[in-house]
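Hi,

I'm pasting everything inline rather than attaching a file, because the server keeps stripping attachments. The sequence lines come first, and each chain or strand is labelled.
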Amino acid sequence: MISVTILGAGNVASHLYKVFSKTEQVFVKQWYNRSIGSISTHKNEVEIIDDLLKIKEADVYILAVSDDAVKTLSASLPLENKLVVHTSGSVSLYDIDKKHRRGVFYPIQTFSKTAEIDFSNVPICIEALKSNDYQLLKKLAISIGSPTKKINSDQRRVLHLAAVFVNNFTNQLYRIGHEITESEGAEFDVLKPLIMETAKKVQDFSPYMAQTGPAKRNDKKTIRKHLKSLESEHHKDIYKLLTESIQRTHGRKKL
Amino acid sequence: MISVTILGAGNVASHLYKVFSKTEQVFVKQWYNRSIGSISTHKNEVEIIDDLLKIKEADVYILAVSDDAVKTLSASLPLENKLVVHTSGSVSLYDIDKKHRRGVFYPIQTFSKTAEIDFSNVPICIEALKSNDYQLLKKLAISIGSPTKKINSDQRRVLHLAAVFVNNFTNQLYRIGHEITESEGAEFDVLKPLIMETAKKVQDFSPYMAQTGPAKRNDKKTIRKHLKSLESEHHKDIYKLLTESIQRTHGRKKL
Ligand SMILES: NC(=O)c1ccc[n+]([C@@H]2O[C@H](COP(=O)([O-])OP(=O)(O)OC[C@H]3O[C@@H](n4cnc5c(N)ncnc54)[C@H](OP(=O)(O)O)[C@@H]3O)[C@@H](O)[C@H]2O)c1
Ligand SMILES: NC(=O)c1ccc[n+]([C@@H]2O[C@H](COP(=O)([O-])OP(=O)(O)OC[C@H]3O[C@@H](n4cnc5c(N)ncnc54)[C@H](OP(=O)(O)O)[C@@H]3O)[C@@H](O)[C@H]2O)c1
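And the predicted assembly:
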């Protein structure tokens, strides 16, 4: 049995609490947040605290708080030589105060409070300074059904950066698709199966192999037509830059 | 029973042939391609031709050929007053020769020969000049399990343009994610569940609601760090432009 104390009550903390609570090998010792309001509904299932002085012994302390809060919160923890980890893709392991045994438990997935999460689809990237700590974090991840990955800080930084491209930027392209269709009386809904299929394709084929369309074919007539129909200069800029990007990748001429 | 003749032997034609062959309400009368090699293996199941003079009566003729070939091929067809449709997102209905009853049967999906296609995930956008023809095309689409959408040429043009954003451009962002991770010894595979989840989220929530990340939060520190770690100037340009795009959408300041 691994005992865990969760600190924070946001997207990540809430999903971790939920999955740990229903995992036999894990016991949630305490759940801390600076403001207790949003989690007080769970007070019959777990000890809820908003006072760091009330913190008890646990095997792991997970700081699932805003990136900027990791440093000060870890320093304020009245503990010594305990395993304390954060869940961030971009915060250094060394931002955790050095009085602790330090580690990272970074779930590569997009969490929001409303959407359900299946932890078998959440690869967890683990870093730890001590090998025993690494083993414990790995066991914790496996107990909730997550695949694990041992990484170093450089790889984590790079994965987080790549995640911005495949998640935030991709979602913005969906948004632009939404804007373009709805502004012209077409329906964004018709594009949803295509969005799923585009994501599904790269589960089995490389994005290089999966590419199709006017930019890859260097179909100048269609590219010109598209640029003409785009009303927003900003959308035109994105169209040009990503068309150029595809043509670089596939060895076509520049626009 | 709807009799269909397919013209072309590429990605779209091959998947249409496959699904029509196994649909009870549809009979594939003939399958034409200018070069017969690639489809000759089907000669025991269907009449294969490479000579337009051998073309017979059918309820619908589907031109699933390259965009540029629609005009001349339709003019070369030795038929009159027959229902002839193309499958393109960007070609005008009026590119089909006016001796035919003209229509469009545009599947909004990404087809490649290797990947399996489930036609219930292929919305088919239908245009026709005559109401009877529209009904027949709709019946054909429904018979293979596809959702249908009545659209006009303007809406089709816009859907095709939006499809470039959510499919080709998105796939290029996956490609950049691939480049960034592999060049730094991290694994692209770890990002695959995130890619699926990003696509899944917008099936239920709007892309506006689904957005997260440093650009939306206007987290300048992380944005600066990311720009610094990107080695390629080209990737930096894309990062900047899409970050700015998210900030426009979510009412943040420009970079
Ligand atoms: N969301 C994701 O998709 C995702 C994915 C992977 C990793 N992460 C990482 O996981 C961590 C948490 O992200 P999240 O999305 O769960 O954040 P969130 O929903 O914004 O929640 C942030 C939490 O941090 C607390 N907090 C903020 N400032 C604090 C401070 N100075 N002292 C103490 N607590 C403070 C907040 O408390 P209040 O409730 O009182 O405001 C809240 O409970 C971040 O490091 C993030 O980078 C997030
Ligand atoms: N692929 C997709 O994801 C997709 C999605 C929706 C709509 N579409 C549309 O569907 C149509 C077909 O696309 P595709 O991807 O199936 O194309 P494709 O795989 O490139 O196949 C093109 C076909 O057109 C034939 N062709 C080319 N030029 C010709 C000419 N001058 N005369 C007669 N036949 C000619 C080719 O014959 P050979 O075999 O002899 O070269 C080949 O059979 C296009 O209008 C495209 O815009 C495609």
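Chain A has a mean pLDDT of 95.

If the labels don't parse on your end, tell me and I'll reformat.
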